Each structure stands twice: as structure tokens, then as C-alpha cells.
């Protein structure tokens, strides 16, 4: 270039770069350019995701800061960041690390077993070729087998292994397209290979099919239940709006990996394991309830088994003002609003978040409560809300075995009502609910029925005994009558005496 620059006029002097086509730079530049274009697409995708709204408890969120916070918390964000990292520069020339990562991946999958089987079979093929003689016929490895060693190809160790591995792969996968066997031993070897290939790869395909079926089994069962509900709504001509709400409710359950019925899922487990799972899931939540904070662990262990999960859709009312309180609610996920009325623009008194509890005092039947067992406000679900529900009957059934805890709960409930100025101090500590009165009546009727049944059984037994004694007396009377007839004769007896007059108890 210097020589060319010295010979040419100054205005014609220029610089030129010459790149060898065999150099690594010649091939790397186009791929680096394509990689940069892909990185630009990934960056644009990240920007779009930061501006894309998302559903939170069924409510569409459009706030940019909130969207960014949620996006950063997801695994997708981590994957997107990894996808735009300049690994081309970081890992350039470190091929060994890539090989190590590939080996680690193979060790974590069943692929290595397949490769090992193919490798062993390739070794047996070449061993048999050597025993029969390299190039002895068109099946074994050698010059006569044009597929293995075409003209102009050197017979190297790499060539021998690559072709043997290739032959083994085609044979075990039953693809074929290899030279056919010639000698008997070759036929036997190929037959065994084909049988092994059919069994091995049929097993692999079967396992893959089973895995896919198992993955879709839960979805199919869930879909069947949803289809059944759809058919019912179509048959009953349910409104389109209500039908859409039901379908969205099913979609929410599936997207959050929730079962329609926790009890049906856990019923296959023994009671001990069910109890341990329930304790692990619900125990700390139940301890947060004010009236249960000082209860003994045994009572809480029984109550956690009675908690039921319910899912409410956006706009659903969990309870309305004036309703009789029969349940206590614990917010597991979602948001609730305590509103003054059922109007859309009703005044909001409070917002209940995850972990909030309401309705606990209405299930204690505390006499003197100024609200009685009635709900004092409307509670509405903002989005999709998951609630744990404890039924009043379940609570009182458990309290029958814990009388001390029952007294403590009533005392604590009265304290909470007194604190909010909702307690009539002149009322007794405890009142019986209509349900409890009915239960007591049913129990009394059951006791009376038991006593009547016992008396009827005793009456029947007494009648049997009396009948047996009467039969004995009749037999003795018959014997006595025959004796009297033998002594005094039938005519006189029949004419002058009756059986009662002739009977003398001392004769018995």
C-alpha cells in the first residue's frame, strides 16, 4: 500500500482492507450483525412488555409503574435480560465451557441412555465386520460397501466410528436404508438389532405419550366439568352476561392452579396427613383471628380441617347488610370493599386486603350484641378473591369437645363488642341460636325415641315370658283335667263341675 501510495498522485491515494475468506472474521461479521438485529428485537419486546397491561385478581391494570414492578418480578423478565446479554463476546473462544454444559444437560436427561445403546451397537457392528473380514461382502464395513467407504475416501478411525454409529442409528430406529445382510450371522445380528430397536424406541415413544397424556389429564378433567356447566347454562337459557362470568371464574381457577374441591383432592390421603397439610396451610392464618389467638392448639387443629376455600368473581357480594351471619371469612388472596349499599358508586367504608378477617363475632351467638347475628354492611369483591370460610355449625361442633375454649371465646367476643360499644351489659353471657334450639330439640327427640324403643323391647320381652308361662299353666291344667276325668268320670264332671271349680292349686 505504501508503494502504491508513493507511485500514485496524492489525490488518488486511498486505503484498502483485504480480508482472507478463510479467516474467522469473514464468517463472524454477518452472524454478529444478525445477532445484533435479534437483540434489537428482544429489546423492543422488553419495551412492549413494560407497556402491556395485566390482570390482577381479574382487574386490568394499566399503571406503567405497577406494570414494570410486576414484570421485573416474573421469570420472563430474567429470561429476556439473559437473551440480550452479549454472550457472543463473553463466551467467544471458550468452547470447552459449552461442551461441559452440553454434557451436563445430557446427564440430566434420558438421551444419554439412547446414545450409549447406539454406541455399543456400533461397536458390535464393527467388531462383527472385523471377525467376518473388512470388505469381505457388501454388508460389512469396507471397500465393497460403497456406503461405508466410497471411492476416494480414506479409511480412518474417525470414518470407521462415524459410519458404524450411523449404521447403528438407522438400524435401531428401524429406518433402514443400509446395505442388506448377506451371510446368516449377519441376518441374525440385524434381526436382533431390529427387535431391540422396536422395543427400545417403542418404550421411549410410549413414555413420551404417557407423559403428554398425564400433562393433559388434569386439563381434560377440568374442561369436562366446565363443559358440563356450559351445557347446563345453555339448557336453562342463562343470560350471556352471567355465562361469561361463570366461564371467567373457571379460567381464573385454572390459571391459578386451583382445584374445584380441595377435599376431593386430599381425600386419597390418610387423616393424619390431611391434618398435617391443613395445619401447614391454615394454622398461622387462623391464629391471626382475634378470637382464636389464645385458643389451645387442639381446637385450632380441628378447625383448620373445617376451613373451606371459596372463590368470588369481581363484583360478587360476599354478604349483604341484614343477612344472618353463618360464616366467618379469612381473605387469602384478593381485595374486598366494605360499601354502604349495592350501588356502583356506593360509599366505601374500608378495604380488606390479604389476611383480613370479618364475620367472626356473628358466629358466636353472643347475647347482648346490638347487631345480633346480622351483617352490618355490604362486602363486595373487587377482583377475583379467594376466601377461607368457617361455618358456624362446624365451629360449635368443635367447641362441644372444648368447653373451656367455648367460655373463653364468648368472654373475648363480649370484650370486643364492649370495646366497640356494641354490647348490652344487662344481657346474659350466652344465647342459643335457633339452629342450636332445633339441635337440642332433635337430640331430646332422639333420646325419647331411644327410651321408647327400650320400653317397647322390654314390653315385647315380658309378653314372650308371660306367654311361655301361660303355655306351661295350660299344659298343667290339661294334665289335671285328665286326672279328674279318670277319677270321677266324664259325665259327672261335665254335668256337675266346671274346670275352674275342680281345680285345686295344691295338686300342682
Automatic annotation (TrEMBL):
Residues 438-490 form a coiled coil. Residues 291-407 form the Cyclic nucleotide-binding domain. One of its GO terms (molecular function) is cGMP binding. GO terms for cellular component: intracellular cyclic nucleotide activated cation channel complex; plasma membrane. Keywords: Coiled coil, Ion channel, Ion transport, Ligand-gated ion channel, Membrane, Transmembrane, Transmembrane helix, Transport. Its main location: membrane. It is found in: Membrane. Pfam families: CLZ, cNMP_binding, Ion_trans. PROSITE patterns: CNMP_BINDING_1, CNMP_BINDING_2, CNMP_BINDING_3. InterPro entries: CLZ_dom, CNG_cation_channel, cNMP-bd_CS, cNMP-bd_dom, cNMP-bd_dom_sf, Ion_trans_dom, RmlC-like_jellyroll. SUPFAM superfamilies: cAMP-binding domain-like, Voltage-gated potassium channels. It comes from the Eukaryota. Gene3D superfamilies: 1.10.287.70, 1.20.5.300, Helix hairpin bin, Jelly Rolls. It is a multi-pass membrane protein. This is Cyclic nucleotide-binding domain-containing protein. It comes from Pristionchus fissidentatus.
Amino acid at each position: 500500500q505504501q508503494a502504491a501510495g508513493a507511485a500514485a498522485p496524492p489525490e488518488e491515494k486511498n486505503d484498502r482492507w483485504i480480508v482472507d475468506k478463510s479467516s474467522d472474521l469473514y464468517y463472524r461479521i454477518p452472524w454478529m450483525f444478525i445477532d445484533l438485529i435479534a437483540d434489537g428485537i428482544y429489546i423492543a419486546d422488553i419495551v412492549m412488555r413494560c407497556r402491556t397491561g395485566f390482570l390482577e385478581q381479574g382487574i386490568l391494570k394499566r399503571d406503567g409503574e405497577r406494570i414494570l414492578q410486576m414484570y421485573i418480578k416474573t421469570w420472563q423478565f430474567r429470561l429476556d435480560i439473559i437473551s440480550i446479554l452479549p454472550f457472543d463476546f463473553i463466551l467467544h473462544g471458550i468452547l470447552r465451557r459449552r461442551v461441559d454444559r452440553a454434557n451436563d444437560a445430557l446427564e440430566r436427561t434420558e438421551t444419554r441412555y439412547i446414545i450409549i445403546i447406539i454406541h455399543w451397537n456400533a461397536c458390535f457392528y464393527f467388531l462383527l465386520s472385523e471377525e467376518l473380514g473388512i470388505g469381505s461382502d457388501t454388508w460389512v464395513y469396507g471397500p465393497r460397501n460403497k456406503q461405508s467407504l466410497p471411492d476416494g475416501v480414506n479409511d480412518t478411525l474417525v470414518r470407521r466410528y462415524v459410519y458404524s454409529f450411523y449404521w447403528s442409528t438407522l438400524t435401531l430406529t428401524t429406518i433402514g436404508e443400509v446395505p442388506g445382510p448377506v451371510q446368516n450371522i449377519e441376518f441374525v445380528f440385524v434381526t436382533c438389532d431390529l427387535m431391540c430397536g422396536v422395543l427400545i424406541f417403542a418404550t421411549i415413544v410410549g413414555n413420551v405419550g404417557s407423559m403428554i397424556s398425564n400433562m393433559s389429564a388434569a386439563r381434560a378433567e377440568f374442561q369436562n366439568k366446565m363443559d358440563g356447566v356450559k351445557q347446563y347454562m345453555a339448557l336453562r337459557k342463562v343470560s350471556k352476561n352471567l355465562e361469561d362470568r361463570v366461564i371467567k371464574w373457571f379460567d381464573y381457577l385454572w390459571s391459578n392452579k386451583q382445584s374445584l374441591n380441595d377435599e376431593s383432592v386430599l381425600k386419597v390421603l390418610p387423616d393424619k396427613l390431611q391434618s398435617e397439610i391443613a395445619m401447614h396451610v391454615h394454622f398461622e392464618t387462623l391464629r391471626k383471628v382475634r378470637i382464636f389467638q389464645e385458643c389451645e392448639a387442639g381446637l385450632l387443629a380441628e378447625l383448620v380441617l373445617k376451613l373451606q376455600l371459596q372463590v368470588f368473581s369481581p363484583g360478587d357480594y360476599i354478604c349483604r347488610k341484614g343477612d344472618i351471619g353463618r360464616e366467618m371469612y379469612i381473605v387469602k388472596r384478593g381485595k374486598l370493599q366494605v360499601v354502604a349499599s349495592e350501588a356502583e358508586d356506593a360509599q366505601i367504608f374500608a378495604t380488606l386486603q390479604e389476611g383480613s378477617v370479618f364475620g367472626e363475632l356473628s358466629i358466636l351467638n353472643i347475647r347482648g350484641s346490638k347487631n345480633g347475628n346480622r351483617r352490618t354492611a355490604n362486602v363486595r369483591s373487587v377482583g377475583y378473591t379467594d376466601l377461607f370460610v368457617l361455618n358456624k355449625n362446624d365451629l360449635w361442633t368443635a367447641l362441644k369437645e372444648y368447653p373451656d375454649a367455648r367460655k373463653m371465646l364468648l368472654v373475648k367476643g363480649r370484650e370486643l363488642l364492649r370495646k366497640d360499644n356494641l354490647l348490652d351489659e344487662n344481657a346474659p353471657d350466652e344465647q342459643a341460636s335457633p339452629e342450636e334450639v332445633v339441635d337440642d330439640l332433635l337430640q331430646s327427640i332422639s333420646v325419647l325415641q331411644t327410651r321408647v324403643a327400650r320400653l317397647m323391647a322390654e314390653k315385647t320381652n315380658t309378653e314372650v315370658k308371660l306367654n311361655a308361662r301361660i303355655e306351661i299353666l295350660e299344659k298343667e291344667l290339661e294334665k289335671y283335667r285328665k286326672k279328674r276325668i279318670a277319677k270321677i268320670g266324664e259325665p259327672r264332671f261335665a254335668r256337675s263341675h266346671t274346670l275352674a271349680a275342680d281345680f285345686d292349686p295344691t295338686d300342682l
